[in-house]
Write a structure and sequence with these properties.
The structure is a homodimer of 314-residue chains.
Chain A (H helix, E strand, L loop, with lengths): L6 H7 L4 H8 L7 H14 L5 H8 L4 E6 L5 H16 L3 E6 L4 H13 L4 E5 L7 H4 L5 E4 L7 E5 L1 H14 L5 E6 L4 H18 L5 E4 L3 H11 L6 E4 L2 H14 L5 E5 L3 H6 L3 E4 L3 H16 L7 E4 L4
The structure holds a DNA duplex (16 and 16 nucleotides).
GO molecular function, one term (chains A, B): DNA-binding transcription factor activity
Protein name (chains A, B): Trehalose operon repressor
Pfam families (chains A, B): LacI (PF00356), Peripla_BP_3 (PF13377)
Chain lengths: 314, 314
DNA sequence: CTGTTAGCGCTTTCAG
DNA sequence: CTGAAAGCGCTAACAG
């Protein structure tokens, strides 16, 4: 906020031409080290700051990636965003973040704004029913998270593996009566895929499935609990930590401290409050890393459309 | 991502001069409605998108505000950011968001990057021990949240009122033994100010204070609980929901369901899990709104340095 | 009201 | 290796 120094000022100050300064700025190797040193010194002393706007306009790249997430206060998404930020910032990019609020319309509006801003690429968090057509036209300049597509790069969570991990944990303990509380299958990923994973695990283990699905809220899970609790029930696998919270709460009321509960999300709060629980980490943070790395590689042409699946862990 | 249409193409296509197109773009009133209509039509048909980079460079304003928060996964901060986003997006600005991770150094780095990007203004979430000097030089182009300064606009939370609200709630119920669990007073706002508010409330009500402070974590509060629980204790006021969670958990174990607990943060999870609790809402979302509105007014010169205090509510 | 003319600050040929 | 010159796409006087 001091002055408005331009590249020309620096050129004069260091007794070289505009272009030489520019070369220093762009790390052009064909500058005599001596000259470079001198110019860099002047830049440092003067506190000169090259204008990104001008660079963006000239060079075409604004060094910005757009991130569209559904909600800022989604714990899973903001963990992933932290991962993204870490990577892109490292690579000299900045992020402009927008909330889709689960609306395809808003998503597209945001996308339009981002294009207008000349962003280098975008990372979009998918949601159930989101329309990918607009994103697909971005081809290698986009990566989507948590949703299926062939036509564009994606980083998905291993919904099957997540549930399998929880199931196996219980199965290995010799438990045979494991119920499930999930969300409505109209939600492709958290709903349908995780439910199916549960069913398959049951089949493979030869145990009788017992499950209920509803909304993604504590209250919903709380209410559903009674329907999946039998006298013999030994554990309940939940599609998310939020759900697990509701289930554990209800179990506590029912005095069923014998029933173990698992959730998804790696919330430390869950096991803090309810001792008899654990949470599977779908790897949100790492997925953020992965998607950002993928995008950056694609932008530099080192990589084409790819599909990654984030491994879950306990 | 279709073509690279420029203002000149639009000019030719609609048979007018560059500047007329520019005037249409900038909503300059001195354009014949007829002409404007024609140009707008062409713009729409061609799918032309003006380059923000060029506009930013020329006009000086990139229509971007920078937001520096401490952590993306801080519930209070991301509620506030949602509020900010709503307002600035409405006003045609976009946001580039960065995490300071409670480091003054990172904050300053981010600030530098934002300046380089020619952002119109910044909103910074303060943290204990953050250094405001760099921000102060931004004068009317900055607003800080949750921290004290005279030299720059700020939106603060009513730390005193927050605790007072909780205390009064209990006092009105005739309770006389109200303890407090907070965070270390080395933290100015959440620590010191809230603790002082508690002490003052006690004094005014003529009751004996009983409190402990520690870290801002469930565990810390959990461990501190025993120290503030006496046989006669009727309620415990906590400096945050996180703390309240730890306290309520410990009380549950102690079988003290008679003790009411209050937190700060409006987390629905708290009262869902522990019935005998309630939470004060410091007004995070509204503070976001307020700070964004303030910044925008300042940027347009309609407002000078101002200090706002967000009212809390139950 | 509208076209013409300058640049904004920077990168990039193109000649030295 | 380095300077001069030509724009990038747009806005803002300046003349019509």
């Amino acid at each position: 906020m001091t002055q408005k120094l331009t590249i020309l000022d620096i050129a004069k100050l260091s007794g070289v031409g505009k272009s030489t300064v520019s070369r220093v700025l762009t790390n052009d190797p064909k500058v005599k080290p001596e000259t470079r040193e001198k110019v860099e010194q002047v830049i440092r002393d003067s506190g000169y700051v090259p204008s990104k706007s001008a660079q963006a306009m000239r060079g075409g790249s604004a060094k910005v990636v757009g991130i569209i997430l559904s909600r800022l206060d989604s714990p899973s998404e903001n963990k992933a965003v932290s991962g993204i930020l870490e990577v892109i910032y490292q690579a000299g990019y900045d992020a402009v973040i927008m909330e889709s609020q689960f609306s395809t319309e808003k998503t597209n509006e945001h996308l339009a704004v981002l294009q207008k801003r000349n962003v280098d690429g975008v990372i979009v968090f998918g949601f159930s029913g989101c329309d990918l057509t607009a994103i697909e036209s971005l081809k290698h300049k986009a990566v989507v998270i948590a949703v299926d597509t062939d036509r564009i790069s994606s980083v998905g969570y291993d919904n099957h593996g997540i549930i399998e991990l929880a199931m196996n944990h219980f199965l290995h303990q010799g438990k045979r009566f494991v119920s499930y509380v999930g969300v409505d299958p109209s939600d492709k990923t958290t709903g349908l895929m995780r439910l199916n994973a549960y069913k398959e695990c049951c089949q493979q283990a030869g145990i009788e499935p017992c499950y209920q699905t509803g909304q993604l809220s504590h209250e919903s899970a709380y209410q559903l609990t009674d329907d999946v609790v039998q006298p013999e029930t030994q554990a309940i696998v939940c599609a998310s930590d939020t759900l697990a919270m509701g289930v554990a709460k209800r179990l506590q009321e029912l005095g069923r401290s014998d029933i173990q509960v698992s959730g998804v999300g790696a919330t430390d709060l869950l096991s803090f409050i309810f001792p008899n629980t654990f949470s599977i980490d779908p790897g949100y943070f790492k997925a953020g890393h992965a998607s950002a790395n993928l995008l950056i590689k694609q932008l530099s042409g080192q990589q084409t459309i790819t599909h990654l699946t984030q491994q879950a862990s306990l």
